[in-house]
């Protein structure tokens, strides 16, 4: 009797757990769109530097779009996807351009900063709304576009490692696609009163990136940090923007 009484109790407990988990998952999914709908229309104001700065009236990035997505809906729900309004507009315009060029590819962005800027652990920068981490675009052996699986176990892709060729498992970094993204981002940054100040990407991959069809133009248009950063930037490239006009 005791065993038969225990089973319904366990079933009810698991049902409650499943219901609570479902509700929390739905809340995480809708939190960012709701926060975006409630954002101020006032112009964003960036102060200081990426490593010592602040942001007022930041804008959250959409969690998903026609050809892009965040690596973490939880991070987006918490507001860790916030940037200066001009950065948001430049990013979305670049994605829209790339959708016309490469409609099969889905892009991923990682963390950016808080709506009000400031210290953004564990990052050393991302404090004034002008920094964005982009996940490297990857392709399979047959050149078909792929995306990196993102979950807490790989720190939302930040813990992934690529080898000296820029490959891991069945996917390799698509350097040509990355060059196309950075050039589009640079163009739309200028159109929004910004410039791409610098890109931090693992130096051992610079040669492969500059060897692509767009490599020479990219090298002339965008400044890359030539030394290795405090953490390896192989699964993502960090972009710092600067305001080019008031």
Uncertain runs are none
Largest sheet: 4 strands, antiparallel
Kindly report the average pLDDT value: 92
Provide a count of the helices. 6
Looking at the overall shape, the CATH architecture is 2-Layer Sandwich
Shape, principal axes of CA atoms? globular
Name of the CATH class: Alpha Beta
Counting structural domains, the number is 1
Total number of β-strand segments?
Answer: 13
Task: Give an overview of the whole structure.
The chain has about 250 residues and is of the alpha+beta class. It has one domain: 2-Layer Sandwich (Muramoyl-pentapeptide Carboxypeptidase, domain 2). Helix content is about 35%, strand content about 20%. It has 6 helices and 13 strands. The strands form 5 sheets. It has a 4-stranded antiparallel beta sheet. A 3-stranded antiparallel beta sheet has the order 7-13-12. A two-stranded antiparallel ribbon has the order 1-2. The protein is globular and about 65 Å long. It starts with a helix and ends with a strand. The mean pLDDT is about 90.
Element layout with pairings:
Blueprint: H1 2-37, E1 45-49, E2 52-56, E3 59-60, E4 68-70, H2 73-78, E5 82-83, H3 85-101, E6 107-109, E7 131-135, E8 138-140, E9 145-146, E10 167-168, E11 171-173, H4 175-191, E12 194-200, H5 206-210, H6 215-221, E13 236-243
Parallel strand pairs: 4-6
Antiparallel strand pairs: 1-2, 3-5, 7-13, 8-9, 8-11, 10-11, 12-13
Helix pairs in contact: 3-4, 4-6
């Amino acid at each position: 009797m005791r065993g038969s009484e225990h089973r319904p109790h366990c079933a009810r407990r698991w049902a409650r757990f499943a219901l609570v988990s479902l509700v929390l998952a739905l809340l995480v999914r809708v939190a960012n769109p709701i926060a975006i709908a409630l954002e101020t229309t006032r112009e964003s104001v960036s102060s200081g530097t990426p490593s010592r700065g602040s942001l007022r009236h930041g804008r959250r990035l959409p969690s998903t779009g026609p050809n892009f997505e965040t690596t973490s809906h939880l991070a987006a729900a918490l507001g860790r996807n916030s940037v200066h309004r001009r950065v948001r507009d430049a990013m979305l315009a670049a994605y829209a351009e790339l959708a016309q060029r490469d409609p099969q590819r889905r892009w991923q962005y990682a963390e950016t900063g808080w709506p009000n800027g400031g210290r953004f652990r564990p990052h050393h920068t991302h404090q004034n709304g002008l920094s964005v981490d982009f996940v490297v675009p990857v392709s399979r052996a047959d050149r078909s576009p792929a995306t990196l699986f993102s979950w807490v176990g790989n720190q939302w892709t930040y813990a992934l490692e690529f080898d000296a060729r820029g490959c891991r498992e069945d996917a390799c970094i698509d350097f040509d696609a990355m060059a196309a993204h950075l050039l589009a981002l640079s163009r739309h940054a200028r159109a929004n009163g910004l410039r791409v100040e610098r890109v931090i990407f693992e130096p051992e991959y610079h040669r492969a990136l500059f060897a692509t069809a767009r490599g020479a133009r990219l090298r002339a248009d965008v400044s890359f940090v030539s030394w290795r950063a405090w953490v390896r930037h192989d699964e993502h490239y960090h972009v710092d923007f600067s305001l080019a006009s008031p």
